[in-house]
Amino acid sequence: MDAPHKNRTGPVPMSPEQMIAEARKAFFVMFGLLAVVWLVQLADWADHYALARDYAVVSGDVGTLPDILVAPLLHWSWAHIESNSGPLFVFGFLAAYRGVVRFLGLTVLIALSSGLVVWFFEHGNVATVGASGLIFGYFGYVVVRGLFDRHLIDTLVGIVMGASFAYLLTVAVPGTPGVSWLGHLGGLLGGLAGAWLFRDRRAPRPATGALTPRTPAGDNTPQPGPGSGPGSDSARADLYKELGDLGLL
Mean of the pLDDT values across residues 166-172? Predict the structure, then answer.
């Protein structure tokens, strides 16, 4: 008797219950992150923004390298933090609802990429703080994640977000006064890289014909050929599953 084998070629799609549970965790994670950012802002404001001055990233200053992970929590003014809070929550939630652990790794990667681009390429003695790099990183991640993971819902979300917020890319190019376009660009690159690094790994397909069922002598029952059966239909089954989760079936 031939040994049974698995025909799945990708990760098991999350059930609606699992998606809701992950979305709930993502909501509380982003709520907690925003709470921390606003508490830091309150303390910074009370100290006349000494924290922002002391923990900003300054290009070429080796002493500010450890501050790369702290600077995204700091802002220069109430207007600065207010303009960042909405996009940070929206894009952060969309980046986190597929898995909080993956999201935390993504956040560290984006903070590093944004801060390092500023540290290496910013000109002059410019002090940079703010969550804008995280926002651009989450944006880039959300837009392309579905392409790497091959998730229908995430692909649709990426298309909608990309079309709706494409104007954000205008402040990730040189020439925007008073804005750290390098921090934005670095965050965006980190988010795109994170979409690939944290993608769902898919198992390779079994070799064609390697596990073809044997036909007993005298049995003329047609056997499924290459490309038929549940193995070849796994991608279609995943698509139906995603459509069902989205409420389209």
Answer: 75
Residue 201 has pLDDT above 50, yes or no: yes
Judge whether 41 and 78 are in contact, CB under 8 Å. yes
In angstroms, the CA 16 to CA 99 distance is 14
pLDDT for residue 42 is more than 70: yes
Domains of the chain: 16-197 (1.20.1540.10)
Phi, psi values for residue 243, rounded to 5°: -60, -40
Query: Which range is least confidently modeled, 10-19, 30-39, 144-153, 208-217?
Result: 208-217
Q: What is the pTM of this model?
A: 0.75
N residues, the chain: 249
Burial call 62-82: b when 16+ CB within 10 Å, e when fewer: eebeebbebbbbbbbeeebbe
> 81 and 75 in contact (C-beta within 8 Å)?
yes
* H or E element that contains 57: strand 57-58
| Residue 188 or 209, more confident | 188
